[in-house]
Amino acid sequence: MRSSFETRTGAETEARSRSRSAPLVVLLVACSASSPATEIREALARPAPITVGAAGARVSLRRADFRDVEVAVEGGRARVLAVVDADGTVSLPAGEVALGYVGREEFEMVRCARARWCASDSPLPALSAVVAALAAAPDRKSVV
Question: Rounded to whole angstroms, what are the CA distances from 131 to 59, 64, 78, 93, 137?
Answer without folding.
Answer: 8, 16, 25, 13, 10
